[in-house]
Please model this.
Amino acid sequence: MLTGDSGIAYGKQNVFFEMLRGFSEHFERVSVICPSNGKGGEMKIHKNVYLYPSSASRFMHLDFFTHKNFILKKAREICAKNPFDLITAHAIPPCFANVKAAMVLSKELSVPYVTELMHIPGYPKAENLMERIERITLNRFFKKNRLKIPHLRLINKSETYKYVIGLGFPEEKILHIPAFYLDFDVFKTGDSVRNPKQFVFCGRLEKNKGLDLLLDAADIVTKEVPDFKLKIVGDGSMKGFVKKRTGKNIELLGWLPTREDVARVYRESSAIIMTSYNEGGPRVTLEAMACGALCLTTKVGIMNEVVDDGKNALFIDWNASEIAEKILWAIRNPDDSARVAEEGRKSVQKFEYNQALKFYADTYLKIAELQNYRVTEKRKKLVFVLPEYDENTSTHYNYLIDLLEEVAKEMEVCLFIEYGKNKPCLKNIQHIYLQKFQIKGFNLKEFRYGETAYIMAQGMLRVPALIERFFVFLWLRLRGYKRFYVHYSYFSAILVGIISRFTFAKSFVWYCEQKNLYKGGSIAFKMAIRCIKKVVTCTELMAGYYREFFHLSDKKLTVMHNWVDVNQIKNFKPTEMRNNKKTVLFVHWLSPRKGSEYLPEIIKKTLSKTDCRFVIVGDGPDVSKIRKISGENIEVVGAISNRDIYNYYKNADVFIMPSREEEFGRVLVEAMACGLPIVAMKTLGADYILDGKQKDFIVPQGDTDAFSDKIIELLKNDELRREMSEVGLKRVKDFDKVLSVKRFLEIVT
Model:
């Protein structure tokens, strides 16, 4: 056990001491490495529990900076004589020496480890600058290592649990094991005469305990109740501060040597007051409640789960006047106070010592006894360059995130985002870099000086961004990333290609464009495919196109389809949007390349022969032209985010894709996954994706009469639509995400 509690090394019989007493009944041997007591050595504190404190000097906190090395050295010595089966490590910011040492030892010795987080420093309220620093470092540490840490023990479900989930920590790795073990042979009601005007504080005398508030509240109460008594039990850095405030009404008892001594004070007091700014527990409140004392506590730690305000305890705020008001209420209403205290005593019975310790030990024994435990071998590293991220986008970029989340289960993925407002919050991807210099270029159509000048101008405009990219890519390469995968971005592909050639890395770029059919960036494109080591494209037809027009070799080309998550779409529950008329759906970018100029004619011819409605989903340069034809049977929706688009697919009867050029056509796959029959103009994408009888509904380019006739044929024949739907649902399985993840891993590894 790697702990930050050095109190036991000074002979204090604190809660950790008592917990180890219980552990001694469940484990053959427990070795505890703790911070310095100035002496070091080996100390036997229970029958099979051994303590190994550091001997480093505590002057200027030298032990603080050398503790990780001490842990590693001492743990190796212990393991050589008494091999261990499990490592536990308290997470203590800002250095996290225990956890970092546990990570090293776990890999080295093939032993599982559990990280234990007792509370969040400075949460919910920070008392000083150091707590704020500790909280910041804790945030960064857990965000960075959330995938590396195999098990995380939390001692309460409310406060700490929500916090670490918010940091992106995987829920399935969290162990909820309370750290509150009450020995009811010690902490119980007794024959002691309880003083209704005596209150007690018990805990470390540190700034986060809110002692200033407590003492100020005591002064207010004393003015109203002259014989009020406050007894303070504990020790710490604020002992001098507290001692100056002691007097007739406030008594500092200091550290009491045994639990029995503490329990006696609880039984003599009317209530315990806990004014902490942040806590994991506090355990002392539960002990006092077990002894029949009323509990007045701030909303910290486990108290959020235990306290039913006004029924079994009283919540107080961080305000001296309010604390004083609650104390005065307890003094002036002894019967009500006694009733609340009794309910509090009943509510803490679930923390019985033996039962709680057994659950704690049994959970760890299950982890230690995993027969096939092994430390995961070092995972391959991948940098994925995404041109843009927007969670509300209608583009295909967000689908890449879904793919990468699956890939990240097998590889260590660093996601580099060129343009975006915020980083996505992801479960499996550990490292995300959002580019600082973000500049979107201008359109070639708006540039009047030729393509070569256009490329040079774009390059000059993006110089700061390109410099940033180059050095980040180079830094990642030096950090051990040997695989770089670029999605579409020309300039990133060029930079990655150059870096990979000089540093022996592997570089990949995804392209799926017929560059000879439209203008824009062909020089940069040619440079990119020459620099990069492997070009990935969407179909064999596109691979043939790159061989023919750009003379790329078979060795340089590989194929990976676009994909959909078939199960996710199957289980998607749409919002009802239908009316009495059958619906023809178009989903795409509204531009000439995607057939927007054909749409008005197709719609006019179809509506002249049958009663139906058209729904047009998408944005683009021609959206204003399309809006002009909207009417009773024509709805122009505009752009719809990826998370909502399936509502439209699942409320339609026929899908159309009149594109002039389509290298793949992801919308075809989406439509098939939703069970829609399809009418499409002849393109590379339609020829490749549509299969069997679906090909009967591919019409020649520009033939709007034939296109309209095919739509009508489907609308009027329910049986034909069902047949085409079944063909599509069978074909779409070839484009399932599961297959694409497998193919992606084959390519990059």
